[in-house]
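INFO  loader      accepted 1 record
INFO  loader      residues=178
INFO  predictor   begin
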Amino acid sequence: MRLKVLGAYGSDGQGQRPSAFLVDDHVLVDAGTVGGALSVAEQTAITHAVLSHAHLDHTVGLAFLADTLAMVAPERSVTACAIAPVIETLRTHVFNDSLWPDFMAIPNRNAPVLKLRELPEEGEARVGELWVTPVLVDHTIPTTGFIVHDGETGFVYSGDTGPTTRLWQVAREMRGLK
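INFO  predictor   done
INFO  writer      dumping tokens
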């Protein structure tokens, strides 16, 4: 498993990029930064984005990634994966043809450059070649951390969170630890 840090800050500024990590060249874990850290060819290789929550510092790169795909590779798509409240926020408040184009209909509804997929809370789901388990963490809006693995190696990720024990408890349970 290869992990590339694209950004690890809560804001955008000189020398700072919002949270985003690229796993094995194809899966984003959060999408605060995409275009500022990756070439167009690297962006078009992305197939999935796993999003912890809907704040801009974790999602704005997805908006620009969808735009890039629509312009240079409309035959490709990226699937944004998150728990239901995050998906609903993206659908209602971001990709709504008001704040940003509805890339779920571009170039057309049958073959859009952006797809949205709900992940079950504390349920392991296949995302590309990875397994992802979202676990609720404490934040101001619905937010998850993730347990991510490929069957051999993995990691635990939590974007913005206050004190949390459930994420670590689930991670230990998955490894058969107490």
